[in-house]
Amino acid sequence: NSDSFESKVKDLEIEVTSSNNILKKMEAAEGLQTEREEKLEENIRVLEQPMSELSIRAENAERQIQVLEENILKLETDLEKEQEAHNNTKDELAAVNAEIDDI
User: Fold this and answer.
1) What predicted TM-score, i.e. pTM, was given to this entire model?
2) What is the distance of C-alpha 18 from the center of its chain?
3) How far is the C-alpha of 38 from the C-alpha of 35, rounded, in Å?
4) Is 90 exceeded by the pLDDT of residue 103?
5) DSSP symbol at 103
6) CA 45, CA 38: separation in Å to the nearest integer?
7) Three-class secondary structure assignment of 16-76
8) pLDDT at position 27, please?
9) What is the model's pLDDT at position 17?
């Protein structure tokens, strides 16, 4: 009976030791996983900063494009007005020349 108990105790000690070893391995793996997770989070932060800066630059560029497009439209409108005024002046000059020729 005593041998049976001793055998049972040894089996339980072996099982406890095995469980402790598994637990230590799991704790070590958890530590590595936590370290990997922290590194990935840092990488994300490092990558988000330039992305944020690029986003701001893109927004600024879009505003500049809008301003330039508005300037182009205004210049085109001004050009059309000036061309019309030039054509009117040419027509008036032609009329004056025709009157002079009639004299």
Assistant:
1) 0.52
2) 50
3) 5
4) no
5) -
6) 11
7) HHHHHHHHHHHHHHHHHHHHHHHHHHHHHHHHHHHHHHHHHHHHHHHHHHHHHHHHHHHHH
8) 95
9) 97
- What's the rounded Cα separation, in Å, for the pair 103 and 95? 13
Separation CA 68–CA 58 (nearest Å): 15
Cα 69 → chain centroid:
25
Question: Rounded to an integer, what distance in angstroms lies between the CA atom of residue 71 and that of residue 68?
Answer: 5
Per-residue pLDDT band at 2 (split at 50, 70, 90): confident
Token pair in block for residue 49: 């900063």
Residue that the structure tokens 């391995």 belong to: 25
Residues in the chain: 103
Tens of pLDDT, residues 70-90: 999 999 999 999 999 999 999
